[in-house]
Amino acid sequence: MISLKRTLTELGQYVQTMGRTLAVPDRMRMFYKQYVTEMYQLGYNSIGLVLIISFFIGAVICLQIKLNIQSAWMPRMVVGYTTREIMLLEFSSSVMCLILSGKVGSNIASELGTMRITQQIDALDIMGVNSANYLILPKILGLMTMMPILVTLSVFAGIVGAYATSFMGITTIPELDEGFRYDFNQWFFWCGMIKAIVYAFIISSVSAFKGYSVVGGSVEVGKASTDAVVASSILVLFADVFLTQILT
């Protein structure tokens, strides 16, 4: 009962915070500057991680399918076809966003939590600035802008990783080419883009709320950072089930 009451209270506080956040910025020039900064910090700085993980995951998926699924009864192009579908439909759009929730979510929560306990947010409120709008909205829109780009790069890196297996003698480039081109459904790519935008909003808004609402000291900031990662990851998984049912 106490847990339910606490959950409903946090939900109400989250809605109120988002109500203040999703307002028209008072100074568009300052907002645009913050927006570009957040795109760089949250998106651009994550490109290396996305490319490395996606490259090796694409290679591992290709190897596993080749060694454990393909048989004489299956066409050879099934390796490339299955790798493409997994990267498009689930890994790049969902699992990669889940991984990024740990990096980006903890970053947002710890930054805002530190600003809260050092009374920087209180100072903004005293000056009449909508602190939620000023601090949180650029993070949300910045991540929502960059996440589809990161997902696209993840798909590309995964395919490159699959091609890399041809140098190990596991597959051949013609086999992979045939599989990657076979029965391509363009809608699956757009499904990944829609998922990426939704997940970006969940990760950034939940993490920002956790950091923005910190009460206490440095210990609470660390706890808020952990809670942000856990909460956003769980919500991304719920959203994945819901969006997959609707979109595919």
Output mean pLDDT: 87
Oligomer: single chain
Number of helices: 9
Any low-confidence stretches, pLDDT <50, length ≥5? none
Tell how many strands the DSSP assignment holds: 0
Estimate nothing, just give the exact number of structural domains. 1
**Structural class by helix and strand composition:** mainly alpha
Biggest sheet, in brief?
Answer: none
Strand content: under 5%
Shape: elongated
| N- to C-terminal distance | 37 Å
User: Cα-atom Rg, whole angstroms?
Assistant: 21 Å
SSE string, helices as H and strands as E: HHHHHHHHH
Helix content: over 70%
Provide keyphrases for this structure.
mainly alpha, 248 residues
Explain this structure to me?
The protein has 248 residues and is an all-alpha fold. 83% of the residues lie in helices and 0% in strands. It has 9 helices and no strands. The longest helix has 40 residues, at 78-117. The relative contact order is 0.17. The model has no long low-confidence stretch (mean pLDDT 87).
List the helices and strands and how they pair.
Elements: H1 2-21, H2 28-43, H3 47-68, H4 78-117, H5 120-126, H6 131-164, H7 173-181, H8 186-212, H9 218-247
Helix pairs in contact: 1-6, 2-6, 3-4, 3-6, 4-6, 4-7, 4-8, 4-9, 6-8, 8-9
